[in-house]
Write a structure and sequence with these properties.
alpha/beta; 3-oxoacyl-[acyl-carrier-protein] synthase-3; ACP_syn_III_C; acyltransferase; 2 domains; 339 residues; Peroxisomal Thiolase, Chain A, domain 1; two-stranded antiparallel sheet
Length: 339
């Protein structure tokens, strides 16, 4: 879809100190073979703050940078992948309350690693619908992966999951970057990649037993109908990419930087036909996988903060998450903010 009046007005992060992978090896958290497979330099590991608190801190940065009055915010979409600190608790409402106030509808989105990018379309549609008189939307992510309930180094087949909060402010009025187009491609048969062949359970997992879905993925791929999963996934990725480029009216060579998830050692760049040097992989390799779409917001913020883009540049944010959904967004830089 091509957007006429959707802008990025602010981005912000709250990221803990990175743990070098060499230190993680010495501490016995991961072995050298796994480190080589992941191709990370470090992974963000927090020893304080809940995920919603991280999201609020990131939101404070993004809101301050956007400079939009809080009464102009019409929706908050908080994206999560893991436990938020309390069971059956609306973490999105906490984020909204402590960032833009008590007046704004707040929703928690659990579309896993595609949450934040998918939320661009949801927020854009909300702002264009006239449901609210507000002109701005706040998108946040927040996750913290604490042992023994989850082993960050081995729970995902192609990544180590990282802690942190990110935020972006979208505006229907103006901003430093314009959302030119977005596209979401879907194949819901791939939800079973995360479920495997196991029956549904009646209770949550025992937190003393580390959660992982690598074995579920392997079960599905080895089972009936699972052998085509890799090709199905590739089709979804390529469809999202080709559609957003067509809607934006540009080619892949016109994309100055491709902001990709911190998974698969950056191999997504090859699937999309972009040299890894033109992607955000170098930054992603220093953070680990900020699930819920944090990779893309943090990666975009890093481009701006390091002066790695110029006015007129097209930047593609590219994400995907269990389900399987994949969202691509083409942005054009109007100006590089002085942050």
């Amino acid at each position: 879809m091509r957007w006429d009046s959707l802008y990025v007005a602010g981005v912000g992060t709250w990221l803990p100190e990175p743990l070098p992978v060499a230190a993680a090896v010495i501490e016995g958290k991961v072995d050298e073979a796994r480190v080589e497979e992941l191709a990370y330099k470090s992974v963000l590991v927090a020893d304080e703050l809940s995920p919603p608190e991280m999201a609020v801190r990131a939101a404070d940065v993004a809101i301050g940078r956007a400079g939009i009055p809080r009464d102009e915010y019409s929706v908050v979409l908080h994206n999560t992948s893991w436990y938020q600190g309390h069971p059956m608790w609306p973490s999105g409402s906490y984020v909204g309350r402590h960032s833009v106030g008590a007046h704004v509808p707040c929703f928690e989105i659990q579309q896993r690693c595609n949450g934040a990018l998918g939320s661009i379309e949801l927020a854009g549609a909300h702002l264009a619908s006239g449901i609210s008189t507000g002109s701005a939307a706040l998108l946040t992510t927040g996750d913290r992966f604490v042992a023994p309930a989850i082993d960050r180094w081995h729970c995902h087949p192609q990544s180590a999951v990282a802690d942190g909060g990110t935020a972006a402010v979208l505006s229907a009025v103006g901003g430093f970057a314009r959302v030119v187009a977005t596209s979401t491609a879907v194949d819901n048969t791939l939800e079973q990649v995360n479920r495997g062949l196991r029956p549904f359970s009646e209770l949550p997992p025992d937190p003393a037993e580390p959660f992982e879905y690598t074995s579920r993925y392997r079960e599905y791929v080895a089972g009936p109908g699972g052998g085509d999963a890799a090709e199905q996934l590739k089709k979804v990725l390529i469809t999202a990419c080709e559609t957003v480029l067509s809607d934006a009216g540009i080619g892949i060579d016109d994309v100055a930087v491709l902001v990709i998830p911190a998974v698969g050692a950056g191999r997504l760049s090859r699937v999309l036909g972009v040299p890894v040097e033109r992607t955000s992989w170098d930054f992603a390799a220093s953070t680990g996988h900020l699930a819920s779409g944090g990779d893309q917001i943090a990666g975009f913020a890093n481009l701006l903060e390091t002066g790695s883009v110029s006015p007129g540049d097209h930047v593609m944010l590219f994400g995907g998450g269990g389900g399987y959904t994949c969202t691509a967004a083409v942005l054009q830089i109007n100006e590089v903010p002085d942050w």
